[in-house]
## 1
Amino acid sequence: MGRVRTGMLAFLTAVLATSALAAPVAAATTRYVDDDGRAGPKRGCDGSQEVPRRIQPAIDASGPFDTVLVCPGVYRGRIVIDGTAKEGMNLFGTTASGAIIRPPDPSRWRGGSLLTVRGAGRVWLKRLRLEAPTAGDCRRIVTMVTIGPDSPDTEVLGLRIVPKGRNTIGRCGYHRGIWVRERSPSWLDSNRVRDFRDSGIVVERSGDDQQDASRVTTNRVRYRHAAEGRPAESLAGISVASDGSSVLDNDVLGAEPRPYPGRPGLDIGIHLDGRMQSASGNTVRYARVGIDTELVWSATLAWGLYLARNVVLDTRVGIRLDWVLDGTVAGNRVRRSDVGIEVIGPGPLKEVAMRIRDNDLRGNALACSDDSRGVGTAGTAHRYQRNLGSKSEPRRICD
């Protein structure tokens, strides 16, 4: 009998210990923000429960994996999601572009970023509209959305980033739309960025392998300032510098040339710098250089650059390849440009660096220009195959 009791006691002790170890983590909390101070879980933004009128207090009260839902309205003030205590947090607008974030009163604005995520990974930002005033008593915003440093796996989805007012290239507005900083590989998808001063989307070096890469997909970047009769100041619509394997897919970048005929709105549509970069299915129109790549290489020389199925229209140079040491450029279409594909270096090389094939380069003043030297086509460092064009330098590479 004693042995039975002893065995039962040991069994119960083990069960209780296991239960303690398996105790569930506190459930994530959802908080509402509404500029009228009333919302709630039962009726959403039409609820009667008292909630914060500003976004930052709701963020400050939130912990890991909590969600802050922002009802339609106008919210003034800088937003910061900071530190590992905010890991996995969600900041969502309840409707597309209904929640509008603007900077505080100019007397309390000291520059910097309007919305910042730093030191917190796996944060989601979704369905918010950020506006930069361009007239009246206003201050210029440096960056509308900053991710990082040290904010890996952040997702920025469906944001609208725009100036507010007609004088969009005046003394106010904003410099950068979205800035992804170091050690913060992120996914940027379906965002709309319009009328920036310097760059629409900038991704800095964020990782050293394919798992640490950023993805920039299905975004719309537009540079069409109010007619001021002056050329663009922008550096690039989308700029990615990566040591991982960054991907740009199905983005659309455009500008409006009419305010300054003959002077394209964007300096560079897409700029790629680093190694193992991929850009496919993108569209660029009205830029000095449509797609600009430099120093793109692969440590294994398996592939460094992959440009495919991109469409580039109305540029001075459609695709520029500057010292690209390895890669494939295939199936792209360039129209109404001074030069369809311009290759600068390298050389001389003992092996073929790039494969440039099946590109449609008709309708440009010069289909291809290549000053490299090596064992490729026509004495260049690259292999050209089945490209369509009427004139090339040297001959026989794209004509």
## 2
Amino acid sequence: MPSPPPRPSAGLGQIERAAAFPTVLMHERSRRHWRSVGLAAPWQIECLGWLSPGQGDPLMGWGVELLPGRVDMPASSTEPNHPFLDPLLAPERAWSEVGQLLLWLGLVSRDRDARGVAVDALIAGIDDGRADPERPAAVLTRLRGGDWVKVNRAASALQEAARVSPLHALTVVRLLEHHLIG
């Protein structure tokens, strides 16, 4: 008796099946906008980050698009924003301009979860040298041109980072100097 034909998924190895999951996740139906794909849990956003693990800019760019709409709203478990900031925590990845823009959006956000991850990323970036004061200061200067950045939130987040060590305090002071000089 001949053997039955192989199932279509039988030829896929464990890696290929796991890699297919985020692609399916991206096509989830949504009642909102097509770009937001109804992301309702942090793990869904993290899965999207798996699509390009060596390059965080696409995911961070998506966060840059979504965070300004919620910058004055509190943390939400139905629309989490903090996972978009996770690529900033990777020590082997330099911060691009998109990453620095996302960092500042997180630092000035009312969302405590996003601000907490942004402060953690800033602290880690100062520790390993990714947070050069000149580039983030230039991004902050451009953001402040729009007159919607809450300076008290930025000051609170920078104060929290400056408390960690003298190196962190010096970096925050240099960042503010570069920002004020313009």
## 3
Amino acid sequence: MENVEDKIEKFEQRNTLEVVPLGEDPKWLKEMKEKEQNSPANIMRIALTHGQDLDKVEKMLELQIKWEANEAKKAYHLAMAEFKKNAPTIKRTKKVTYTTDKGGTTEYWHADLGVSAEEINKELANQGLSSTWKTSQGDAKITVTCIITHKHGHSEETSLSAGADNSGGKNAIQGIGSTIFYLERYTLFALTGLAPHGMDDDGKGSDPQLEGSNDFISEAQLKTLTGKVKESKINEKAFLVSLGVETLSELPASKYNKALIPLNARIKQNKK
């Protein structure tokens, strides 16, 4: 337990004023004055005071704004380069285990969005960067956009779209939440150029989800697959693993026909 002397010392440390030589401005005031001197309003005032034409001043300001935007963009890319030098290794930390139709056990690991985002954002912050997401809906699609912004103002973004994940008996709200969850993860990985450790497709072709592609199955295709999964009575978890996805809504359109083959075969077999 702290004694009175310790409490007094901490209070004094928190409330110690910056010692500034007589005639000098404190650090915070110097920084504020520097910003004011470079502000567009101050530049315009100085130029007009020296008899410069207003049109010329406006063109000067436009050049200044473009120059600052370019400098901010360069700062962003330098920061991202430093980020990638020290990028965290995204590990598959979430385990999924289930029993197959034949009584065997299948298990696999995948990267958890919460853990991944925390590790990525920690290193982004070290480089003056931050990430956020925004979502929108339209044409039966949910679009998630990941935005990474540098402290100097430049930002870049990437988007992915997919239908609501109605697999596994989810209600409408759960389906939307599931899709947003996965799209947030994939957009963050895509924009930072990272991928979970060990993620590959054994030469089966790259996954468009991880390359910034919006080419997921359509809402109608998702509805068809969901209906056939239910009709075929196939083990849904095993089926998803065979397709290399965690939910039907994140299935690439290029794998749609492949997904139909075992479903149609099972339905045909069940009718015999």
